[in-house]
Amino acid sequence: MVTFNRADACAGTETVLLNIGPQHPSTHGVTHILVELSGETVVAAKPILGYLHRGIEKLAEYRTWQQDLVYTDRLDYVSQIGNEWAYCRAVERLTAIEVPERAEWIRTLFCELNRITSHIMWYAGVTMDIGTMGTPFIYAFKARERIYDFFEAVTGARMMYNYFRFGGVRCDVAPGLLEDIHDYLGGEFLELMDDLDALLLGNEIVQSRMKGIGAFTTAQLVEWGITGPFLRASGLAQDLRKDAPYGAYDKVEFAVPTSTVSDSFARCEVRMAEMREAASICRQVIERMPEGDISVKVPRLLKPEAGEVYVRTESPRGELGIYLVSDGGPKPYRFRVRSPIFYNISALPKMLPGWKLQDALVIFGGIDTSMGEIDR
Amino acid sequence: MFGQGLLKGLGITFQRLRRPTETQLYPYQQPVLPATSRMFLAMYHDEAGVPACKACMTCQTGCPDHVIRIEKDTENPKVPLSFTVNSGRCTFCGICVELCPFSALHFTGDFERATYLKSDLIYKLVDGSRATGEGEGERHGR
Amino acid sequence: MSGLGWNTVLWLAGLFALMALTALIGVYWERKVIGHFQARRGPLHHGWHGLLQLPADMVKMISKEDVVPTKADRMLFQVAPMFVAVPAFTSLAAMTFMPGVAFVDMRHGLFFVFAMQTVMPVGFALIGWSCDNKYTLLGGLRAAAQLISYEIPMLLAAMGVVMSVGSMRLTDIAQAQASGPWFIVRQPIGFVIFSLAVLAEINRTPFDMPEAESELVAGYHTEYSGMKFGLVQLAEYTALLMGSYLIATLFLGGWNMPLLPASPVWLFLKTVLLMTSTMWFRATFPRLRVDTLMEMSWKILIPVALANIMLVASLMLVLPKRWF
After folding, report:
1. Which one of C30, C132, C215, C221 makes the best mutation probe of the A interface by having the most chain A beta carbons within 10 Å?
2. Shortest CA distance to A67 belongs to which of B60, B125, B80?
3. Rounded to a whole number, what is the distance in Å from the CA of A128 to chain C's nearest CA?
4. Quick one: which of A224, A240, A342, C2 could link to A347 by a disulfide (CB 3.0–4.6 Å)?
5. What is the pLDDT, as a whole number, of residue A117?
6. Exposed/middle/buried for C140, CB within 10 Å: 0-12, 13-18, 19+?
7. CA distances (Å), B107 to each of A157, B36, B37, in order?
8. Which chain B residues have any C-beta within 8 angstroms of a chain C C-beta?
């Protein structure tokens, strides 16, 4: 939808190329978008990728299956557990390893905690994009710090957890800590969420900045290959946790937040609702977590039979797929990541034209990029 | 009514003025880290300084980033002559600690190891078959 | 005051001290206040509660390399900050603190302040143009457009007060509120419009489009470093002081306080309170969109301000003189 394009009406005007990024206050990570402006209206946009390319897919081919697990944390460094889980699931399917019941529940718990921290990162980014001094950012990061404290107590790290193992998780969670998490998510966190809601969704300036901005139809989004909250905000309740359940998702009750409006504001609403849903899933998991083993014995040098596997999971940003090919050796023959953001950001040239520069950054903020995953 | 949300937002920020700040005064106050924290690598040894490492090379082969380098004693293959850690390459994944069949390695809570030279990040846990005691300083936190 | 006596020199020294102190203490105060709004502590390391941050910042600003971009229009680049700074500082001359206590008690003080502020958009446009940088160009043009648009509602809103008082002398305006109620009570619509317009005029959140760091890096002063940046910054804080002072004098009774003796202390407190509340807004609000901003000025504020003038005029005819 193009609101207005006065450029054609003016005689003798020229467009301006403006680099947003790679070093720019509003880009998330090292994104580089080259936009062509006519006045303040975007006429063309082109994302330029590769500033954070570390060659993880190639590195993985030179390391054993277990060693690759370390690298999955570094794919999307905002939702690390989700990547670990996707990779573990792929290898488990390739080698037919059964995961104990308790391990699946623990995995679900930490994946959802990670979904909250990831969405908080999005919240921080989007509030900065629309020009706050960073106050909602810092309030939200308080919750993120608390959740990272839980992660650190269990896994020993704040960001690069390396917590999942093939056939389970590395260590069990102390019952006291589970209670702490349950209490925090049921009380203080929800209070903070109310504040965060009021500062973003309740704010009339935000509404005037976001309502009606970046409105795309479901058909368009599907055609562009968009997944995740961005797609769900258009009314299509596509969520792999429901559609192809894994972990303990089929045993807990949760709703898939959707919206029919499909603009930037709806995307905010969906993500905020997802954070609350994730907190509710975590609480249910803690209440109903079964006892039992947390991992099964897996040979130190894993050699899956030759074959290939593709596993889809729902990362906070969309459909995260891991494609693995094994030639029967101790190292993967091919390790490929279907990163949701890569597909979402690829649609920018189609999304941005026609919008104002300020709107373009709001739409871009709605994608919730994490460059580590795009450039790999 | 327009403006209600704005006023509510102002109220939220105003309330924060009265609450205690969240700032962690890091250089003045050391953070409290959980016992599980993965910081720099250290090795167990007995009082005479004989390292617990038996030079089995599991950690060296298991490390994804080739951080660890063990030199074996040619006469006694179960004793490491030197055990070098290039912590500049280390990603603190903890695979070495997990793999060690003798539980010789452990993490310390020491995280203040910033150096001016990359070469200063290479340190030896075992030198001349004797444990150096590197990294076994005061453990921050509990 | 006659001739260039010691008196004048003292007043000039006072003027410069005021402007430098506002900027320095303003920066420190803003950092502290926003820090506490954000559950942080603000400057803390240097000196008691980070007070030595002020001289440190000053020394840094002065000693920094003064970078001129190769392709910049050198002349304009050097001169442009003056177009912003000089009017901002000069407008301080119109400040009055008590009857008889003033830099210059001008008969058209209010007019003088507005006249000085009209020069500033030129400076912003020049800064934006001279750097040969797209961010500064967009930022400078946005700033110029915004300042020009919001001058009109600001003037129109002040017009109501001027009509009621019958003078443009700032002393008279403040004195008019000594006996009767303040103008915030007499002309609430005028107060709201004037405050909004001042907020936009001094480029503060939610109207800080010109320096919109999320899209334009730092807006019009992206390319400035060292003391030139310092000058622009100084001008911004001076404008903040002047804006708060104007609201305090025009609508909040100036140095008057009900039931208490008039004193410049009240004026100072009101000004500081208003400055702090702009920081509060800055800590809370996101910024508006450029076109919404323009629409707000031309489609809402200006018509309402005109209607306000009509209202004030008709009330002046109907109500007793003491009230209007």
Report:
1. C215
2. B60
3. 7
4. A224
5. 92
6. buried
7. 12, 8, 8
8. 6, 9-10, 12-14, 16-17, 19, 21-23, 25
C321 pLDDT band (50/70/90 cuts)? low
Name, in order, each residue with C-beta under 8 angstroms of A120's C-beta and a sequence gap of 6 or more.
A140, A141, A143, A144, A275
Is residue C295 situated within a structural domain?
A: yes
Does a structural domain hold residue B7? no
Contacts of A356 in chain C (CB under 8 A): 289-291
Instruction: Tell me phi and psi for residue A184, to 5 degrees.
Output: -65, -45
pLDDT tens per residue, range B51-82: 888 888 888 888 888 888 888 878 887 888 88
Arithmetic mean of pLDDT, C262-283: 86
- Give the bridge partners for A27, in sequence order: none
Residue C206 domain-assigned? yes
Q: B72, B8 in Cβ contact below 8 A?
A: no
CA-wise closest residue to B86 among B119, B61, B113: B119
Could you give the angle at the alpha carbon of A22 between the alpha carbons of B92 and C210, nearest 5°?
A: 125
**3 state SS of B56:** coil
Q: What is the pTM of this model?
A: 0.85
Query: Cβ of C44 under 8 Å from any chain B Cβ?
Result: yes
Q: Is residue B47 part of a domain?
A: yes
Greatest alpha-carbon pair distance for chain B in Å reads 86
- What is the reported pLDDT for C211? 67
CB atoms A207 and B62 under 8 Å: no
C41 contacts in B (CB within 8 Å)? Answer: 21, 23
Which is it for strands B68-72 and B80-86: parallel, antiparallel or unpaired? antiparallel
User: Does residue A118 form part of some domain?
Assistant: yes
Residue B89 buriedness (CB in 10 A; 0-12 / 13-18 / 19+): middle
- Domain count of chain C? 1
pLDDT of A9 over the 60 cut: no
Please name the member of B6, B14, B22 whose beta carbon is closest to the beta carbon of C40: B22
Parent domain of A214: 56-344
Range of the domain at C258: 69-318
Residue A335 pairs with which residues in a beta bridge?
A324
Each residue of A88-118: pLDDT tens digit?
999 998 888 888 888 989 999 999 999 999 9
**Omega cis (within 30) before A330:** no
Domain that holds residue B56: 35-131
| Mean predicted lDDT score pLDDT of chain A | 86
Residue pair A372/A82 in contact by the 8 Å Cβ criterion = no
How many alpha carbons lie under 13 Å from residue C12 in its C-beta half-sphere?
7
Residues whose CB is less than 8 angstroms from the CB of residue A293 and which lie 6 or more positions away in sequence, other chains included: A100, A102, A103, A168
What does the pLDDT read at residue B140? Answer: 44
pLDDT exceeds cutoff 80 at B3: no
- B21 in a structural domain: no
Inter-CA distances, C266 with A100, A177, C247, Å: 72, 54, 13
Residue C11 lies in a domain: no
State the ipTM, two decimals.
0.81
C-alpha distances out from residue C312 to A282, C150, C164, Å: 61, 21, 8
- State how many domains chain B has: 1
What is the side-by-side order of every strand in the sheet holding B68-72? Answer: B68-72, B80-86, B122-127, B130-131
A-chain CB neighbours of B98 within 8 Å are: 170
CATH of residue A233's domain is: 1.10.645.10
CB–CB of C184/C252 below 8 Å? yes
Q: Which of A340-344, B87-91, C260-264 has the lowest mean pLDDT?
A: C260-264
- Domain assignment of residue B17, yes or no: no
In chain A, residues 57-76 whose CB comes closer than 8 Å to chain B:
63, 66-68, 70-71
